[in-house]
Amino acid sequence: MNEKRVEFSPSLMTMDLDKFNEQIKFLNEHVDSYHIDIMDGHYVPNITLSPWFLTEVRKISSLPMSAHLMVTDPSFWVQQLIDVKCEWICMHAEVMDGLAFRLIDQIHDAGLKAGIVLNPETPVSAIFPYIDLLDKVTIMTVDPGFAGQRFLENTLKKITELKKLREENGYKYVIEMDGSSGRKTFKRIDEVGPDIYIIGRSGLFGLDEKIEKSWEIMVKDYEDMTGKSFPHKRNT
User: Fold this and answer.
1) Phi, psi (5° rounding) for residue 52?
2) Distance CA 36, CA 77 (A)
3) Which of 40, 178, 195, 221 is catalytic?
4) Please, which residues bridge with residue 107 across strands?
5) Which of 49, 126, 158, 222 is the most exposed place for a label (fewest CB within 10 A)?
6) Mean pLDDT for the stretch of residues 33-48
């Protein structure tokens, strides 16, 4: 059986918004999905993108989008994201007490996919009550809320644990890593093998002023560090 191709999802919080059209149109031909960070200024100090931003991306892209809710009240945001038909709605496990089943059902009833995000300190066991319902589990490999933070290698153990649980129990979720994915970390991440890499400033957008050159550098970094051919979305 052929190994499943790893996917790449740029974190649009870290893109150059002055070059929004140029960067999205280029990435449309190279990536698998877009990662949209929504922060409320309470769960994390920053305030970033919103459901409105997804509607702007939709104007020039048909790629799936995944919303990462770094918010204290996910129930406030879920319906807004359903209304804009965000394909993946991912909520932090740390704020899901008393909400998990209701919100996961709400997302599924809308024909969309539900995900859970685990902070570096949060064990996989925190999501055991509803793990069988999940379409995605995202492992934070940095503390949430800021770009460019220190990579926390111990968090990768959770990816290995999630893969084992999925194989043993037939769970359907995909596994995503989020935080400081780039030249310095590609080799170690590849060793545990998540399904989706989130790439941000350190791995893509901060490498060069031109997105084409940044992409070229990122592909070379991945191939140099992993010894593998880059899993291009399509031949271009």
Assistant:
1) -60, -35
2) 13
3) 178
4) none
5) 126
6) 86
Contact 58, 36 (CB under 8 A): no
Given pLDDT bands bounded at 50, 70 and 90, which one contains residue 60? Answer: very high
Which residue type, as a one-letter code, is found at position 175? I
Q: Which residues pair with 89 in a beta bridge?
A: 67, 114
Tokens of 46: 């920053």
Q: Would the pTM of this model clear 0.85, i.e. be above it?
A: yes
Give the ranges where the chain is alpha helix by DSSP (H).
20-28, 51-58, 74-83, 100-109, 156-169, 186-192, 211-226
Other CB atoms within a 10 A radius of the CB of residue 148 amount to 12
- Give the Cα separation of 85 and 55 in Å (integer): 9
The pLDDT tens digits for 71-99 are: 999 999 999 999 999 999 999 999 999 99
Is 37 considered catalytic here? yes
In sequence order, what DSSP letters do the residues of 85-145 get, joined into one string? T-SEEEEEGGG-TTTHHHHHHHHHHTT-EEEEEE-TT--GGGGGGGGGG-SEEEEESS-TT
Order of strands across the sheet with 7-10?
7-10, 196-199, 174-178, 136-140, 113-118, 88-92, 65-70, 34-39
